[in-house]
Amino acid sequence: MRDLKRNQNTTKKVRLNRRKKKSKPLSWRKILHRSLRIGVTLFSGALLLVGGFFVTQLLLASDLFRVEQVVVKGNSRLKGEQVVALSDIEIGINTFTLDLGLIGRKIEENPWVDTTRVRRIFPRQVVINIEEREPVAIVNLGYLYYLGKQGEIFKVLDATDNLDYPVITGFDYAKVQAHNGEYGQQLKRVVALLSSLSRRDLFGLNQISEVHFEEGGDLSLFTLDGGVKIKMGTADYDRKLSRLERIYAQLRPKLKMLEYIDLNVEEKVIVRIERPKQMAKG
Fold first, then answer.
1. Under the phi-then-psi rule, with left for phi > 0, alpha for psi from -120 to 50, and beta for the rest, what region is 66?
2. What is the pLDDT of residues 138-177, one digit of tens each?
3. CATH code at 82?
């Protein structure tokens, strides 16, 4: 049998041998120092907030920051007064009350404006930098619209607009209005073709009257002289136009006799001569 009495004595000795932890006295100096530091931080923050509020009110009430001049840069089609009117900036308004982002968005509501940057020039000037859209063609969608260099349709033409651009046909108004993604890519192809033509002398933009979008996605050109159809396909416009330019001097006097020119066969220019009606009947 176990000696229970002995075990009890041993347990008591172990307990007696344990050291009693002495509780440390509170350091009031540290507590006071910490409290003082927190109080100073809070007071400083409150002082900054109050000071910032009064400084803001002072700036808003000061005549030193009243707008005296609005400068417009980058405009060519729009007059400076038109841009200022679109901005709704009033002379005499405090510059700190202006929402520059909102002003930019207001100006960009005009279809000619692509991007806008509005800056404060302290103390009394505001500068508006705009980038205007540049039309490269006119798209016939029932009404006539300008096509921009990024492939965007951005403005319906009015009586004052310039009509001296190639006309784009074959696009569907409903799909354009629905922002059809495929149509967006096709319009960018049209811009790429026009860009290639703009860099050429023998057969350039001044030689064409129309770009037509075919149902299958191909693009065709129509010459200004004789209205001859030139089949361009879907790609490699630079190479195809270079092939055409090599023989265009010989073709040009005969354009009225041609039915079409096909550039879709590698390294060839296929020309179809229109047959007289009498031969066609026989």
1. beta
2. 999 999 999 999 999 999 999 999 999 999 999 998 888 8
3. 3.10.20.310
